[in-house]
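To whoever is covering the structure queue this week,

Two jobs came back overnight. Logging them here so there's a record in the thread.

Job A:
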Amino acid sequence: MSSLPPVRIGLLGLGTVGASTLEVLRRNADAITRRAGRAIEVVAASARDIKKSRPVDLSGIELTSDPFKVVNNHHLDVVVELMGGTDPTRELVVTALKSGKHVVTANKALIALHGNEIFEVAHGSNAIVAFEAAVAGAIPVVKAIREGLAGNHIEWLAGIINGTCNYILTAMSDEGRDFAEVLAEAQALGYAEADPSFDVDGIDAAHKLTILAAIAFGIPLQFDRVYIEGISQISRVDVEYAKRLGYRIKHLGLANQRASGIELRVHPTLVPERQILANVNGVMNAIMVKGDAAGATLYYGAGAGGQATASAVIADLVDVVRALNSHPESRVPHLSFQPDALAELPIVDMHDVRTSYYLRLGVLDQVGVLADVTRILGDGGISIEAILQQEQAGGAQGVPVIILTHEVSERAMNEAIIEIEALSQITSKIVRIRMEPLA
């Protein structure tokens, strides 16, 4: 065992993840020390309420309610940021890096929105920023893409990267329940926040996709270029029709490298039920990555939770400790590619993305309606794969008609939908969900 002194850690945040990180560090201290080559010791921590009772022993730790006292503590080697949000965390992380401390963070919003600046500061200070825990909890997907697939040209990746959305869509599919009912249950169980918009509107998944795409394709972090669509408009009816047609609706983050550039999009997606991602249920996460040499690889596990996230935080700590005495140029680059080799590849506008579509129309039960619809689709160069027409009384909402299309551009589909909705026989707005074969 090394005779070097312990690496001294400062924790920012003692919530669920912070307390779990401290607990796992102590519980597995011997194995962690043997892996890292040096002991890891938490000597300082900040929390909003330092008098609050917590399920972890805080003895021997200097506690403060001021996180800047931690980042300015010159006795520390590493700062672990587990506060969340971007203010004041951005300033805290930059301050820590400028003082020569390394940083480990589980903060996807911080990395997605300010990572380019943070990595530049770290590079200038010869410091490390480790962020495995920022994406998909316990799943080591950042390391897998950045190191395990380093010899590959990454073609695409697709992931279920928000457990709340996956829990809701799974319950809607398996139990035939409505979105609002399942969301309320998810909130009661603690899977969704009181304000669930961050999850169900797709923002959380977009933060994670921004990070995954940057390390997969060697591009700067570009959250503002991600197309984002949530799941609040998904109905039980569409979940049921998808199942009848051999699909499952999943909320996916998708990044594709095309000849025209990089696609970055987060939205509900019909996935063939035979595909592995279609069968990832509950709060679990999974990411599929397609490389030219490795083929399709899958990474599955718990995407959130105190212990799961702590696992990734501590893995990052071990990596940082191992690299403390290495030359900065020999370390794994933050975004997989060397900083001066990041490519300013174009991001494909959503209107130019090509995919297949599920369309649900409400139509009056009149002769010639489907002929008008198919004519409009044909004039737009949209080829139909299948049509399902329900034999039932339509009423005010009309008879439901389901159309599956072959691949077409988003622009062409938007134009066709506008024209179809203008028909007098169409009784409601068309429901449109994109489809992906993931093959």
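Job B:
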Amino acid sequence: MDGSELSRRVEDVVANVEKVIFGKHHEVELAFVALLCRGHILIEDVPGTGKTVLAKSLARSLGCSFRRIQFTPDLLPSDVTGVAIFDQRTNSFEFRPGPIMSQIVLADEINRATPKTQSALLEAMEEHQVTVDGVTYRLPDPFLVMATQNPIEYEGTFPLPEAQLDRFFLRLQLGYPGEDQEIEILDAQRVQHPIDTLGQVMSADDLIEAQVRVRDIHLAPAVKRYIVSVVAATRSHPDVYLGASPRGSLALTRASQAYAAVRGRDFVLPDDVKALAAPTLSHRLILQPQARLKDLGSTTVIAEVLASVPVETAPAAARA
């Protein structure tokens, strides 16, 4: 699969998803960037903005298996990973896989589960495997966790620890649709939901091939230094208590490579880094208390960092 074919395949998938998700081209594109990088997505938004539909439509467009886990305070880790049950006929334990054994998993309202249950996702997200009663089981490939949480309602929730936030590749916010897009939604769902007729436009095997392809996208030394400088600047920003880790640098690098491939290029530009900085880094920052008092968001900090870090010889970086 060459660069032009990869770009065309991505356009087909995005266009297919946009039959259901209206007016969110950039967000759908970023979701597919995460898929290309084998990363996981955290969507922070109010109910009813299409978070569940986005996960379902991606799964249908790629022909991937899909499971939804509704996170509640009484959810147990075994409800996520699965459980070993004793079979009297064979006199042995039989593993009954949980919903995590799917290619695309929607963790709905993830912050409503207890920390013990949230931690059941850590091994799955980082190592693409789960361990039950000392036995390790590999997860299917491709594998994506798309988690949602409501940024407004905090009563009865358990905030995600920094270690788990750091394992999410991107953080997205869909937001409310525009007036024209909302009218399109009303028209599209007048008879039936459009997701019921959504077809497959790309296979899971093609996605796996594309995931390998994006790792070959060229990254010039100047662009590497720019990425490292941006991430380092988050650690020294006066309003940041804890900046992005080296995992953030890796995420920004891989996301920039995938974004360049989506654009039909075989090299990364500094503009790719700027476009992906907020989605990949903002949820990895812990702000100072005074920043929260000033109602300063992490995306604002990222914007200030991008404005302060110079780009060294961007044209040369593109030619290298």
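Note for Job B: The longest helix spans residues 246-262.

Please reply-all if you pick these up so we don't duplicate work.
Q.
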